[in-house]
Amino acid sequence: MNDASERAARIRAARPASRRRLVPVLLFVVAIVVFATDQLVKNWVVDTLPEGQTVPVLGDFLQWHFVRNPGAAFSLASGSTWIFTILATVVVCVILWQIRRLGSLLWAAFFGLLLGGVLGNLTDRLTRPPGFPVGHVIDFISTPWMIPAIYNIADIAICTGMALFVLVTLFGLPLDGSPRRKRGEEEPESSDAPAADADPEPETR
Questions:
Q1: What is the pTM assigned to this prediction?
Q2: Alpha-carbon dihedral of residues 182, 187, 188, 194, nearest 10 degrees?
Q3: What local confidence, expressed as pLDDT, does residue 190 receive?
Q4: What's the CA gap between 8 and 4, in Å, rounded?
Q5: Which is the catalytic residue, given 139, 176, 197, 199?
Q6: How far apart are CA 119 and CA 32, in angstroms?
Q7: Which residues face 69 on adjacent strands?
Q8: Which of 47, 124, 155, 192 is catalytic?
Q9: Residue 199 catalytic?
Q10: Calpha distance 19→2 (Å, rounded)
Q11: Tell me: the pLDDT tens digits for 127-151?
């Protein structure tokens, strides 16, 4: 009976360790898939699509419209490319620094989406015309019915990651993968403290 309970305890102890090893793997796999897909599709866009012209794919629901974006995501803040290059570099450094603290698969998925998307657009700014570090980002996805902007796969990954961030924050999932604390979980001791510290009542005769 003791041997069986010890084996069960070892298995339970091994699960968090194995999951913690899986966390950075998931982060990098997600980031690599997003980054590779983004760059491969952008190269196809540059080689295939006419710049500045709308190519219907599913009518007004989905269109290709190849533009070179000097601004932020969704073609915002044009003319500030170097600022976004610096910001993107800082974001990448912060994500890599946070890896050592990660223990949650959902947080790893968020950071992977964010890292892959940021690296995708950062690569454009560093390698595409007009040149380092103010290269223009390749945007080509147009959905006029949803938003009046043109975007790319990296932008989709960043927005999906931020939506996941909102969810894990609302549910209170810790970054390190520890069990979620419930309300009042740390308060039992403090509730008994006044009774223990109270002065004893004087004896009545």
A1: 0.78
A2: -170
A3: 45
A4: 6
A5: 139
A6: 9
A7: 137
A8: 155
A9: no
A10: 26
A11: 999 998 889 999 999 999 998 889 9
